[in-house]
Design brief:
Rossmann fold, elongated, Helicase, Ruva Protein, domain 3, alpha/beta, 13 strands
Length: about 500
């Protein structure tokens, strides 16, 4: 059975690049009726951030990515672990790493290194001055067992390093990049176990992927140069290596690596700004992959059927925020009005525009004013603020239409007020039909009436049609605002 994994470090919120990695791993597993595992790699103790695990699991769940095995949350939000290959948190697996490290030491494929930071810094400095490749120089590689035992007995601090072969090449076939080859002599003796007894990523990832029966490792291209070390570890243990797929970087529109300096990059940021999970997932799926035709809108279920690595590109993918906004707009347009109102409610409540007792049927008609225009839900409080205002503040000159005078605009509003105050059936469609007839019968210019009406109702140059606004405001509020417009033109 195909089994993929996503193995983040709990150092903060989930980066959108990490979401893409998780998504591709998830899609590949689902396409082949496989299993998706979430493992937490927390061996770098200095960078841990409290609450990161919970935040990352919530972000994955928000995006529709379900965890088959590994770390997840129970209904109360507590961290739990599912599956028969745990623990799935690396800091809980230390005895497993020690046991496997002992095997590697016994086979002579790893060695104790007692070099301190000062010596390592000096070696690196000399390598750089001599324009040599930087890396460990193998100083402790050939220490005798007696020397090692004596140093350990004396309490000398040490790490354990991989005894990388210095001849030959390491090859593998990458699912994205094809045949990849590294000369072993250029690969240094990687630290596998730190002095605090915690494994490095390079050791733990191999042990974990093997014991958890991972068949396909999908990760970012920054790990491609480390892959020969991992493959060598598989060979040293006598284990079968998984297949590898290294994904290209995500870059911004200026082709720089996508980072916090250039704006929001955490999934949580996009969620708070009002992007729909379906839109973000659809957009991210296309950052390096496409179906080979002109289709752009895919549900998660459709992606599960279509996705494969034969259509994943090697080149860096541009995180185009305009395109993401376009995706969000398409998904918003496809929502029912009631779903759109329910999604809008938290943003309007946070802005203090509505309370818990709001009439949802009325709110549905209100937010529908902006449904075809908006890109993200955080725009709503600003774009619809005038609807909820008790008193509109605007320059009365705004009401005057083009070349009309103040007196002419005031007169048109007065005629309009008299017409609307006797209106019997207040509904947008009826208002629009009857007002257009009334304008025509009185030989008024359309703009001479509708511009003053719209600006008096909204207090803005740009807004929905006056018929839409009046239909939402109701007769009493519409007349109140028109009257205020008349008074402002005195």
């Amino acid at each position: 059975m195909i089994k993929t994994r996503f193995a983040p470090s709990p150092t903060g919120f989930l980066h959108v690049g990490s979401l893409r990695t998780a998504l591709y791993a998830y899609l590949y597993a689902k396409k082949h009726n496989g299993s998706f595992v979430l493992r937490v790699e927390d061996t770098d103790r200095a960078r841990l951030v409290e609450g990161s695990i919970e935040a990352m699991v919530k972000s994955l769940a928000w995006g529709g990515i379900e965890i088959d095995e590994g770390v997840t949350l129970d209904p109360l939000g507590n961290t739990v672990q599912l599956g028969d290959h745990g623990p799935y948190i690396q800091s809980e697996r230390l005895p497993i790493y020690k046991e496997n490290m002992d095997v590697l030491l016994e086979k002579g494929h790893a060695y104790h290194c007692f070099c301190g930071k000062e010596r390592l810094d000096e070696v690196r400095k000399m390598q750089e001055l001599n324009k040599m490749p930087t890396g460990y120089d193998g100083h402790c590689r050939e220490l005798s067992k007696e020397e090692v035992d004596a140093k350990i007995a004396a309490g000398e601090s040490h790490v354990i390093r991989l005894k990388m072969p210095k001849e030959g090449v390491t090859k593998f076939t990458d699912m994205v990049r094809g045949e990849v080859e590294f000369k072993n002599e250029l690969i240094d003796d990687q630290v596998l176990m730190k002095s605090d007894g915690f494994p490095t990523y390079h050791f733990a990832v191999v042990v974990d992927d093997h014991l958890m029966e991972i068949t396909h490792v999908i990760r970012g291209e920054e790990w491609i140069s480390s892959t020969p070390k991992h493959i060598m570890l598989y060979e040293m243990f006598g284990w079968e290596a998984p297949q590898f797929a290294h994904l290209s970087l995500l870059v911004n529109e200026q082709k720089a690596k996508l980072s916090k300096r250039h704006g929001d990059v955490a999934v949580e940021d996009f969620k708070e700004k009002g992007y729909l999970p379906e839109a973000l997932v659809n957009f991210i799926s296309f950052l390096g992959w496409n179906p080979g035709d002109d289709r752009e809108i895919f549900s998660l279920a459709e992606l599960e059927k279509e996705f494969d690595f034969d259509k994943v590109a090697k080149s860096a993918a541009v995180f185009n925020r305009e395109k993401l906004a376009w995706y969000n707009k398409q998904y918003i347009k496809g929502m029912s009005n009631i779903d759109f109102a329910r999604h809008s409610l938290p943003y309007l409540k946070n802005a203090g525009l509505v309370g818990d007792d709001v009439d949802m049927e009325w709110l549905e008609s209100v937010v529908a004013l902006e449904k075809e225009r908006m890109e993200v839900f955080t725009e709503l409080p600003e774009s619809l603020g005038y609807i909820f205002a008790t008193e509109l503040e605007y320059d009365p000159e705004l009401i005057i239409w083009k070349k009309a005078t103040k007196e002419e605009s005031k007169e048109k509003l007065e005629f309009l007020y008299e017409f609307l105050k006797n209106f019997a059936f207040w509904k947008q469609e009826v208002l629009e039909d009857e007002m257009k007839k009334w304008i025509q019968n009185n030989n008024f210019g359309v703009g001479d009436v509708l511009w003053p009406m719209r600006t008096a109702l909204s207090g803005r140059k740009n807004s929905p049609s006056p018929f839409e606004i009046a239909g939402v405001l109701g007769q009493e509020e519409t007349l109140k605002r028109i009257k205020k417009g008349i008074e402002g033109l005195v």
